[in-house]
Amino acid sequence: MTVSSLAAPAQAEARPDRPGATELRLAAFAAHRRARFPLGPLTLFTGPSGSGKTGALRAYEALARLGGGAALGEVFPDPVACVPERARPDAQRRRGFRIGCTVDGPEGPVRLEVAVQAEPELRIVGERLTAGGVTLLETALRDPGRRVVQAAWHTAGSSPVTRGPLPDDRLGTALLPLRVAGRTDGERRVLAAAEQMVVALRSVYACDPSPRRMRAATPLGAGRLLRGCDNLAEVLWRTRSECGHRYAHLVTAVRAGCAGPVTDVLAEPLGDGTVRALLDRGDGVRTHLGLLGDGELRYLALALVLLTGPGVLEVDPAGEVPAALQTLTVLADGLDRGLDVRQAGELVRLSARMCERGHIRLVGAVGDAVPVCEEPGVTVVDLTP
Q1: What would the DSSP string read from start to end of 182-250?
Q2: Is residue 148 helix, strand or coil?
Q3: Residue 65 has what pLDDT?
Q4: Which residues of 24-54 are buried (b: 16+ CB within 10 A; e: fewer)?
Q5: Nearest Cα to Cα of residue 53 among 377, 86, 61, 361
Q6: CA dihedral 287, 288, 293, 298 (to 10 degrees)
Q7: 70 CA to centre of own chain
Q8: pLDDT, position 365
Q9: What's the pLDDT tens digit per position in 43-65?
Q10: Is 125 a residue whose pLDDT tops 90?
């Protein structure tokens, strides 16, 4: 595995205002062992089929969902598939996997490590949250017969730690605000670090546009873009009237990535409660999106994702934290799937411009890094053996 970045040399900077993940660690997960992947504002995983690109993004998404409070069984419906293939069970026939990440922000770098037992029962058997060399939360499975783990969190008061049980099917870090009172400086430090981690993980939008579903007219509804971008026409209808400036940038991006002339991207209601999307060719001809190729549709959908925000995407950011202090992270497996070299290059350049502004980050997987990873600011993680 090799890592390269075309970003400018790092300078000494103050701590970032917006929490963001700076490292993904897969100690034992699927095809990965003892792997550490740096994450920048724009990170692209590359490598041949089977090198673990999808697995890395799947682990990141799993951490994000756990940070949002999802139950372990929802996040890992097939947990055995996450266990490294050659991992042998212990004397109690237990096997599992371990994942973690680092999030930098106002509290400095905060590390999270999670150990999950996949067999014989799915459960979290260990978790550690650390910052500045101090263990702020640590959990361990003490009694396999009980569906809880024993937790200890930093207090730094009359007692150095406080102990108590936490459920073994939820991320303890996400539960800390419900258990820690914040009476001492130590407890307040725990809460601040946990909040930084959870804010970064919750603000994740996993996106995999499905051209087949995007071709049909879609009912008008909440106007939040689904993971597969099935309701693309509805979201175009909503966003056109909400922010003309960003919509103009979308039209420019579509013009660069779609064949033929494009003067506008439209959405029109059909009178039956549905809406369909069109490309205005500028000479009286309008092309229904259903006639576009798969690559054009994926390109359009991903450009829309990059040019919108959490209020338009189906993501659940931390509502108690101002939007100005959050960064949306887009996960895009197969970022260049179905795209030609020109489209892939345009999409990466658009990603670089948007990520440079600081309010959005992107972690994607691509099949061939050569034509798309030469943009300044791209962190390339090459998983080629």
Answers
A1: --SHHHHHHHHHHHHHHHHHHSEEE----HHHHSS-EE--S--B-TT-TTHHHHHHHHHHH-HHHHHHH
A2: strand
A3: 96
A4: bbbbbbbbbeebebebbbbbbbbbeeebbbb
A5: 61
A6: 110
A7: 15
A8: 95
A9: 999 998 889 999 999 999 999 99
A10: yes
Q: pTM score > 0.85 for this model?
A: yes
| CA nearest to 114, candidates 161, 67, 52, 48 | 67
Is the CB of residue 383 less than 8 Å from the CB of residue 77? Answer: no
Within 13 Å and on the Cβ side, how many CA atoms surround 324?
Answer: 0
d(CA 183, CA 179): 12
How far apart CA 109 and CA 196 sit, in angstroms, is 9
Helix (H, G, I), strand (E, B) or coil at 71: coil
Q: Which residues pair with residue 211 across a beta bridge?
A: none
**Amino acid present at 71:** A
User: Is residue 119 scored above 60 in pLDDT?
Assistant: yes
Distance of CA 254 to the CA centre of its chain: 24
Beta partners for 161? 154
Average pLDDT value for the chain: 89
Q: Give the type of residue at 89.
A: P
Distance CA 119, CA 101 (A): 23
Residue 128 in tokens: 């550690």
Which DSSP state fits 351?
H
d(CA 228, CA 213): 8
Kind and range of the H or E element at 166? strand 161-167
For the cut 80, the answer to whether the pLDDT of residue 12 exceeds it is no
Average pLDDT over residues 109-132: 97
Q: Are 326 and 203 in contact (CB under 8 A)?
A: yes
